[in-house]
Amino acid sequence: MIIADPRPLLAHQCVRFEDGLSLDCGVELRELTVAYRTYGRLNRDRTNAVLVCHALTGDQYVAETHPLTGKPGWWDAVVGPGKPVDTERFFVIAANVLGGCMGSTGPLSIRDDQRPESGRTLPWGTDFPPVTIRDMVRAQKRLIERLGIARLFSVLGGSMGGMQVLEWAALYPDCVFSAVPIAAAAYHTAQNIAFHEVGRQAIFADPDWEGGRYWEHGKVPARGLAVARMAAHITYLSEQALTRKFGRRLRSGPSLTLFDDLFEVESYLRHQGSTFVSRFDANSYLSITRAMDFFDLAAEHGGDLAHAFAGSRTRFCVISFSSDWLFPTAQSRAIARALNRAAANVSFVEVESDKGHDAFLLDEPAFHRTLSGFLSGSAAAAGL
């Protein structure tokens, strides 16, 4: 059987759980694999572990050269020696989410009923069961237990990573000393779902989509996936950032054209799309965007977000960015208010930035100071 995958075959660091995982949709995965990376050293008491949760298009390669792109890890500015998440002080863990395409169980994985020894290598593809953010967190919990860690010093992440942080704090409050949801929300809005649907429809419209079984035909829906990435990437930036970086600058002399790569912003988006295709799977994109769409933490707790954190002893720092229109500050404030109603220990910071949603990934000194200060204060409270 032909399996088309534009990415090189990689051997990821991973753990396998032969007892599988029960999913919210009712499906029982008979086997679970979680791919992960670690940075720093776990202390003798196993109390300095920090779990970094990645966003939609991220993965476990947080603070090292990425094996596919050859570029620095996606949070290299934040995680490392002497950085806000200091690997000389903390033991940092990052796992590829359930449904991902960098080693964890997902659409690219061999189906439960198709083992390599059978001579068949049939991946799940579009038959992969729908997963939720809560399913992702349950899979991460299995990893943390396997590593022998009873309580995480901190769980932190931005965007979809922030959703996972909130789910961790709600689902396993006694296992999380501190939590930092960044540029996140307690539910996915109708606008966010709409943007995701545009991306999904772009993939479906690609002639190489082949009903989601493109690998059987030696194809990849590269054009559709690239357009999905382009549309999403626009939402990650602010108007100010786009204007500052590109304005209306042309790549060539002024001329009227319908199809040529004329404006610099067009070239930038096309580059984002083409490079994304080389490291991501279309079916994983569908799976993960749906997981984000399903997310509604209040609905999981009787419709009241405060109930999700009732009695929590976790220390929270909720961070937003002033120019983020994808996960605007109002949504972070709603989280902070719910935490206050639950009598939780919470601080809230809106970072002034014109870089949009992606500010948490970029060089943003005010954000770095906020994160570093909160982790240092929490470490002192934890006796680290």
Q: Can you give a write-up of this model?
A:
- The chain is of the alpha/beta class.
- The chain has 2 domains: 14-189 and 296-382, Rossmann fold; 193-289, Rna Polymerase Sigma Factor, Chain: A (Orthogonal Bundle).
- The chain has helices at 133-146, 160-171, 190-205, 222-236, 239-245, 264-277, 282-294, 329-341, 365-382; strands at residues 14-17, 21-22, 28-29, 32-39, 49-53, 79-80, 85-86, 91-95, 152-158, 176-182, 315-321, 345-351.
- An 8-stranded mixed β-sheet has the order 1-4-8-5-9-10-11-12, with helices on both faces. Strands 2-3 form a two-stranded antiparallel sheet.
- The protein starts with 13 loop residues before the first strand and ends with a helix.
Could you say how many structural domains there are in total? 2
- CA radius of gyration: 21 Å
- So how many helices? 9
The percentage helix is 25-40%
The first-level CATH class of the largest domain is given as Alpha Beta
H/E series: EEEEEEEEHEHEHHHHHEHEH
Going by CATH, the architecture of the largest domain would be 3-Layer(aba) Sandwich
Q: Please, what is the average pLDDT?
A: 92
**Unreliable stretches covering 5 or more consecutive residues:** none
Q: In terms of structural class, how would the helical and strand content be classed?
A: alpha/beta
